[in-house]
């Protein structure tokens, strides 16, 4: 009888709603939705080129620390004409965009949730491609340092606006028929 009464009490406890703040009995099983209140989602990362002012400066400082303290010492390799570098890489917007994307991917792939192969995927899919594009002989740093004995920095001019953009700009500057006093239909 005592045993039956204990079982009935246990069934009543399990059937009732858990008290607020008490741990879920399912939390140990890793069941989503049963471990308590949902955690706040981390902020969505934004490309550095979309940031402005202090937010951009803070992100560039953090990126520079990662590049100087981790990326270059481990993956920097020798500076040559086939693999140029620039000590002022932060002034090359395209290089900043590439390195920021590489850094975001690194953060994602080093996370334990990426699994044991996360960093291999980062090396294969991100590091190799990004460094090849950034340090290509004809890439964005090709006019900069190609020898450690000759530090250099030069921003290469980008392409001019498309013909369509030029035409729209020219047409906007020219007075239209209504501005010339001509009747419009």
Entry summary:
The chain contains five helices and no strands. It has helices at 2-15, 53-75, 93-110, 118-134, 163-173. The radius of gyration is 29 Å and the shape is elongated.
Describe the structure using short key phrases.
185 residues
Integer-rounded radius of gyration: 29 Å
Percent of residues in β-strands: under 5%
Would you tell me the overall average pLDDT? Answer: 82
- Assembly state: single chain
SSE class:
mainly alpha
Largest sheet: none
Poorly predicted ranges (pLDDT <50, ≥5 residues)? Answer: none
The separation of the N and C termini measures 99 Å
SSE order in H/E notation?
HHHHH
Number of strands: 0
Inertia-based shape: elongated
Number of helices: 5
Helical content stands at 40-55%
SSE layout:
Layout: H1 2-15, H2 53-75, H3 93-110, H4 118-134, H5 163-173
Helix pairs in contact: 2-3, 3-4
Describe this structure in words.
The protein has 185 residues and is mainly alpha-helical. It is built from five helices and no strands. The radius of gyration is 29 Å and the shape is elongated. The protein starts with a helix and ends in a 12-residue tail after the last helix. The model has no long low-confidence stretch (mean pLDDT 82).
């Amino acid at each position: 009888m005592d045993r039956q009464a204990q079982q009935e009490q246990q069934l009543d406890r399990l059937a009732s709603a858990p008290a607020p703040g008490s741990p879920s009995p399912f939390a140990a099983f890793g069941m989503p939705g049963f471990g308590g209140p949902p955690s706040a989602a981390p902020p969505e990362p934004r490309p550095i080129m979309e940031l402005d002012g202090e937010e951009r400066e803070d992100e560039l400082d953090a990126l520079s620390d990662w590049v100087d303290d981790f990326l270059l010492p481990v993956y920097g390799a020798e500076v040559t004409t086939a693999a140029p570098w620039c000590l002022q890489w932060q002034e090359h917007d395209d290089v900043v965009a590439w390195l920021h994307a590489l850094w975001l991917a690194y953060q994602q792939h080093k996370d334990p949730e990426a699994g044991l192969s996360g960093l291999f995927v980062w090396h294969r899919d991100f590091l190799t491609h990004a460094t090849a594009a950034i340090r290509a002989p004809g890439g964005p740093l090709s006019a900069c340092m190609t020898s450690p004995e000759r530090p250099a920095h030069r921003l290469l001019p980008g392409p001019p606006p498309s013909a369509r953009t030029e035409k729209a700009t020219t047409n906007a500057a020219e007075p239209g028929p209504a501005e010339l006093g001509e009747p419009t239909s």
